[in-house]
Amino acid sequence: MSKKLLGCLLLVAACSSTPPASTSVASRPAAKPVTHRLPASLVGEDRQQQEALQAFLNSCSRLGMQWQSLCWQAQRTAKTPAAAARFFQQNFDEYALDDGHGLLTGYMEAQLRCSWRPTARLNYPVYGTPSDLRKGVPYLTRRQIETVPSAALQRAVLMYCDKFDAYSLGVQGSGRVVLPDNSTVKLTYATKNNHGYTSIGRVLIDAGEVPREQMSMQAIKAWVQKNPERVDWLFQHNESYVFYDIDRRQEKHVGPPGAMALKSGLTPYRSVAVDSRHIPLGTPLKIRSQWPDQTPFSRVVIAQDKGGAIKGRVRADLFLGHGDLADELAGRLQSPLDLRVLWPKRWSTPSAEWMRVSSAG
What is the predicted pLDDT for the residue at 6? Predict the structure, then answer.
């Protein structure tokens, strides 16, 4: 299981499987203005493929021997846009998956304030892995964890946070925690309670609380703020619960390690979570989609993570880093996706569902 459990971001559409093939980048959803300006490098065609080249190199220590000759070539490639683009063009062929177009969402490394000890506001426990949890065996549900925690669970408390922030942390799967003395620690996904995930966005839509077209993480937060007495009702619809590790890596600036356990961490706007049943981790991909305001973009990205809600052949969850722009995009990004797999030339493909399109260029 990935260090990022549920990149579906609380959204109903993002928690579903790949949409039907009739969904395309051309059939755009309603625009949602982005209040934080998108950098020019994120708009239009990908002009900075050296970032993707570095993200690919970050995977190399976790890839098998068959990849190492390509890793050696990547290491020797100049880290310039033109040289990186040639590397992908000359060494990879482009494949489409037979489901056509799909869905792109985004996730981020959450930032939240917590405390080692409970306070009046920070009083919701965040847990490490309890000693009585068994792999693959259903543990306590969210309701049971919150109302009758086991003794082993109580011994596993790591820190205390705001309840909504803690829930959001479970969706993102990792986070930067600011403590009362302004020091920072990082939490990464360890495991879960082995119960199924339910989208609270869908719960609110089905209950008539939030219109489908207005659904976003921001809309859920606004609902929670207006309905504090109903928060337990909402959150406990989702029986899935995440447990964490404290990130002990020395490089505190790097992103979460993701499903590949990357020492260098995931790379913002270059790492994606995929369904690894269909796309092997470490594989370069070419994606075309649009930001929430309908601005189109294309990027070469690397499949370096996976998540419980990322299901389907043409399904990707883009890692957005941390900060205000990442927070906004993570809450709103759910766009049609055109995805191509970049697979090494002359290699046999791992699946008959892949269809050769052209060289990667």
Answer: 39
E strands, the chain, in order: 92-97, 102-107, 110-115, 124-127, 157-161, 174-178, 184-192, 242-246, 271-273, 284-290, 296-305, 315-319, 334-344, 354-359
SS3 268: coil
Sign (positive or negative) of CA dihedral 349, 355, 359, 361: negative
The answer for residues whose C-beta is within 8 angstroms of residue 9's C-beta and 6 or more apart is 105, 106, 107, 171, 172, 217, 330, 331, 333, 334
Q: Is 218 helix (H, G, I), strand (E, B) or coil?
A: helix
Provide the β-strand partners of residue 124: 161
pTM above threshold 0.85: no
Question: Residue 11 in contact with residue 334, Cβ under 8 Å?
Answer: yes
Task: Determine how many CB atoms are found less than 10 A away from the CB of residue 228.
Answer: 10
Query: Scanning the structure block, which residue is given the tokens 């976003």?
Result: 216
- Closest to 271 (Cα-Cα) out of 313, 306, 235, 318: 318
Picking from 58, 194, 34, 201, the residue whose alpha carbon sits closest to that of residue 129 is: 194
**Residues of the chain scoring pLDDT < 70:** 1-30, 99-100, 250-253, 359-361
